[in-house]
Amino acid sequence: MATIINIETSTDVCSVSLTRDGEVLEHREDYEGRNHATRLSPFIDDVMKYATSREIGIDAVSVSIGPGSYTGLRIGLSEAKGLAFGLGVPLIGVDTLKLLCVEVMFSKYVNDDVIFIPMIDARRMEVFTGAFDLSLTPLMPEQPMIVDENSFARLIESGRTVLIFGNGSDKIIDIIKAPNVQYVSGIKPVAVSMMALSELAFRKSEFIDVAYSVPNYLKEFQATTPKNKVL
N or C: less crowded end of the chain, CB within 10 Å? Predict the structure, then answer.
């Protein structure tokens, strides 16, 4: 039985949860935008106080490692590294696209032959995406993709149920249509849903380096000029 602090900051949601043996003991979530720098540390303090007040020991720290927001991922991993080092516990990295799939797994659309296509917004018509079956086995590599009407054609033409979701899926809802394609709205990566993946990684001793691990950005950072820049 592992008690794990889960940290998720890959999109505009900032969230932390304390989980143990399939149960969420405590959690904090902020959906108001990219407030990770100000919200994350207090959220971690809250769940730590909960654990301390009940004499609950922490066995590991888990963090969503991407793909996703460059800034959010850096903030989350930095906090997770410091926490894991301070507690002397291992660090777990959770794939954000697989985490989104977990959010959808118990929806009414899922069957044994389903294909999950999670999408995270990567500006303009580009998304971070991949494809997975029900066991989260990859059906295509995770990648940045500029989506169009031919994206995922091979998977869709298989006739299997294709579920598309995540904050990048709004870009293609009017572009990719087929009888076997369903769009699942409102799916966002949050720390409470990391529990199954975190516990599985802990049981398998699949840990990442506390000092040298980096987020899975999938592509290099490209700076943009602020719209309100004064010349």
Answer: C
